[in-house]
Amino acid sequence: MPVDGSTRARVQRMWERLGRACEAAGRDRDEVRLLPVSKLHDVDEIRAVHAALAEVSGDAGPRSYGENHVQEIVAKTARIGPDEGIDFTLIGHLQTNKVNAVLPRIREFQALDSLRLAARLDRRLTELGRTLDVLVEVNTSGERTKHGVGLDEAFGFCEALADYEALDVKGLMTVAVDSPDTARVAACFDALVALRDRLRGRAVLGSTWCELSMGMSGDFPLAIAHGATTVRIGTALFGPRAY
Ligand SMILES: *Cc1c(COP(=O)(O)O)cnc(C)c1O
């Protein structure tokens, strides 16, 4: 896949910013996973970013791309070959009636926020004889417009997930408040860290609880400073989305 100059420059710049953010936070680069978010970008744009990331990172291995909508994942997986090294992670809300359609097409699900959905996923996965990596989405900002389990209920919610053996619960995800006030954004990240520590401290689900997926194009350096282990980056890698 040939990579045009502007894609390469954008990807290179993002890769460098990621390195600087890790350095500034005194963290090892390997501790922070980059999940490129490809929603609303077509498969050729994904291929171009994929090729550019392989160049700048020196890692031509497979990568997962974040998507918000089941229909978009279905359409894109139909056009991407199994040997292209590209697969998808669902980072948006999932309705129970779309579970069967999406399960064969995703590597990971980062937005688990209801026990009804957990039960539905677990049942279908058991039928398929497989497991799925999941993160619990937590609404750390308290905004009504956001999905996610409320901070008050999150601990109990996570405890209840122990009943679903096909769900491999890897950690927590949040979308911070979109605000120029960095203290408010940081408070969202800290709330997720505190919840993770509480879950770990009580050994609720054993030692597999470690992932913190937080930080996007506008706030990833702050998220890394606060302990993010995965950052979800759309605009800074792909350019603006056409709605
Ligand atoms: C779209 C989206 C992102 C990426 O957002 P950018 O600001 O474009 O980096 C990250 N996480 C979630 C849940 C998203 O929906």
Automatic annotation (TrEMBL):
Domain of life per record: Bacteria
Claim: Chloroplast is one of the keywords in the record: no
Cofactor or coenzyme needed: pyridoxal 5'-phosphate
Pfam families reported for this sequence: Ala_racemase_N
Molecular function GO terms recorded: pyridoxal phosphate binding
Segments forming domain Alanine racemase N-terminal: 54-240
Positions carrying N6-(pyridoxal phosphate)lysine: K39
CDD domains: PLPDE_III_YBL036c_like (cd00635)
Keywords, ordered alphabetically: Pyridoxal phosphate
Alphabetized NCBIfam families for the sequence: YggS family pyridoxal phosphate-dependent enzyme
Role according to the record: Pyridoxal 5'-phosphate (PLP)-binding protein, which is involved in PLP homeostasis.
Cross-referenced PANTHER family: PROLINE SYNTHETASE CO-TRANSCRIBED BACTERIAL HOMOLOG PROTEIN (PTHR10146), PYRIDOXAL PHOSPHATE HOMEOSTASIS PROTEIN (PTHR10146:SF14)
Protein family according to the UniProt entry: Belongs to the pyridoxal phosphate-binding protein YggS/PROSC family.
Protein name in UniProt: Pyridoxal phosphate homeostasis protein
Species this chain originates from: Propionibacterium acidifaciens F0233
